[in-house]
Amino acid sequence: MNQVRLGIIGIGNMGTGHCKNILQGKVPEIAITAIADRSEARRAWAKENLPETAAVYEEGKDLITAGVCDAVLIAVPHYQHPELTIYALEHGLHVMCEKPAGVYTKQVREMNEAARKSDRVFGMMFNQRTNCIYRKMHELVTGGELGAIKRVNWIVTDWYRTQSYYDSGSWRATWDGEGGGVLLNQCPHNMDLLQWICGMPKKVHAFCHNGKWHDIEVEDDVTAYLEYPNGATGVFVTTTADAPGTNRFEVTLEMGKLVCENEKLTLYKLAENERTFCKTAKGGFDKPECTVTEIETDGLNEQHMGVLKAFAGRILHGTPLVAEGVEGINGLTLSNAMHLSSWLGKGIEIPFEEDLFLEELEKRRSSSRKKEGSGVVFDTEGSY
Amino acid sequence: MNQVRLGIIGIGNMGTGHCKNILQGKVPEIAITAIADRSEARRAWAKENLPETAAVYEEGKDLITAGVCDAVLIAVPHYQHPELTIYALEHGLHVMCEKPAGVYTKQVREMNEAARKSDRVFGMMFNQRTNCIYRKMHELVTGGELGAIKRVNWIVTDWYRTQSYYDSGSWRATWDGEGGGVLLNQCPHNMDLLQWICGMPKKVHAFCHNGKWHDIEVEDDVTAYLEYPNGATGVFVTTTADAPGTNRFEVTLEMGKLVCENEKLTLYKLAENERTFCKTAKGGFDKPECTVTEIETDGLNEQHMGVLKAFAGRILHGTPLVAEGVEGINGLTLSNAMHLSSWLGKGIEIPFEEDLFLEELEKRRSSSRKKEGSGVVFDTEGSY
């Protein structure tokens, strides 16, 4: 085998983007041999735009059992991610799953068990992990040279969306269709990067505001306070309504500070560990010596293509994935904890009671409002 | 009268700084005619460094009743601010009070009542209000041209202090001596600017950590979440242990965003109100047009000298103060609410129960640890 036969399940905004990239030859080790979509309009688009050899299905499960693919890319609404992933793995297909891994961790835990039992490749579409700056932050923070983390502050308010975005899909921004708002749709990348770079907090206290800026039932404005096992604290702020938004990720450590903003990574490196300095300096207002450097990276940022290339590489040559599928549960644990904290109005320890979360989610699903989607498919270029 | 005869009560770190500035002729309309300090060493310093004509007292109240001053500058530990202010006003003296206005709002409310009954000038040493950048932010945000506030984010972690700072004064960083830590000693400026520029929140949820980075009993690390009457939210983060710290104050409004960092003020101005754009734009990923400008200011930043000059100006010529004394209660209300929220582990609505706050404070005072101060007086240049 020198090319992976890929089926794409779901060709809405994201699936269509992946389709176009592959059709343009940007991932040469992958060929699209099938697509599935429940929308007649999207299937018609597929028949017009895909090679004649590509099979078109209404149901993802039919695509999976048709025997025309080695692997599937799952880009359907979030609730169906675990079910289709499990089904595909159990039918011997490799799986690349769009983010988030699912809507609630209990469901994703089952998916991870299926993946552990299977010998197939399971990857998550955490394309932001291909970004040279986040890779460098991961390397510097987890490398240990900067000492322990003391504080994290990520303001990521640049996920701007208009009302027409929310009006475009009937499942979009509903408890029943998506299981959440900005935390489930836009922030899975940030949730994943946050845990990948800084590790998992042990406690979360979040303040989510539902339909604050848009006519939607789910949250479009979130402020979360985090506590880490070593005592470090953090703040995570997001919204889809700030213009222009900010994307500033600051990590303070014992040996200095990293600031990622405007596609630059700045390192403030201390000459000595602050914890030692604090205890030994004679002057009350003394400060440790510090040098400031803009960090050079390898400049590579392959995004979705990078994730898909690595996925094909793992299948064909056993080379590393960008993100293992089973790691998807970490970011979801974070967002579930934020939702639960806000719903209950109190701080939530991690791990939290997964059954309690599900119960609270089901309450919201059962009163979820039905809406008509405009069916418009937006070009997502540069928006994820 | 063409010069104000000033008595300085308390010549520790701050009082000494004021003394030196005035002795160096930086505030020509003020002459120091008396000082008071309970420390023999500080009185000896005064006798050596002040003109022979300046009277030296042990007790502030003796200075106030001696008839040698028109005005007093109160720079003693915080608990005594209201008592001495009231005493001075009642004895016909003008008062400039160091920040914070006091330790608990109930006490400060009494001070404000005394000020309202008096015809004397009462100012607060909010020297940061003289900073051209904060003045400009105040003008732009309260001016209305940028629309309503949507979000506030102030990371002010550049109040670095070593352990030796805390060891220098027996009253420092104790519940009984100071009534708090970074919120009461370093942050009164930020609390005041926050309310001066953005108005008062209606609810505060804070996470204060006591003695997290230093051997002290009060808080040296705070993260607070704020909710404003119009629904806007905010985050305020501070500590005395981050090196190098950050001072980044971001205010997002309907018509754009202001970011104050590294002594620069940047305005991101939208071509149209985001609230209108969101509802009318056709594209799901459309964004309002935005222009970015570095805001020019008048460049003036007179700090303590500016506050003292304005104080003399008000006394001699009726010109405006930098900050009215009665406004000191606002910032203290904020920090009291943060303390109370953290003590009770829940969100606190403003106005809060002042008696409850005092009760909780007294609990902490009664078990406050006694410590010996090294008595070292640090040069505070550039540190406040």
Structure description:
The structure is a homodimer of 384-residue chains. The first copy, chain A, has 384 residues and is of the alpha/beta class. The first copy, chain A, folds into 2 domains: 4-126 and 302-324, NAD(P)-binding Rossmann-like Domain (Rossmann fold, 3-Layer(aba) Sandwich), CATH 3.40.50; 129-300 and 331-366, Dihydrodipicolinate Reductase, domain 2 (2-Layer Sandwich), CATH 3.30.360. Chain A is built from 13 helices and 15 strands. A 9-stranded mixed beta sheet of chain A has the order 14-13-12-11-7-10-9-8-15. Chain A has a 6-stranded parallel beta sheet with strand order 3-2-1-4-5-6, with helices on both faces. In chain A, strand 8 and strand 9 form a beta hairpin. In chain A, helix 6 (132-143) packs parallel to helix 9 (188-198). The first copy, chain A, is globular and about 75 Å long. Chains A and B meet through strand 7, helix 7, strand 8, strand 9 and strand 10 of A and strand 7, helix 7, strand 8, strand 9 and strand 10 of B.
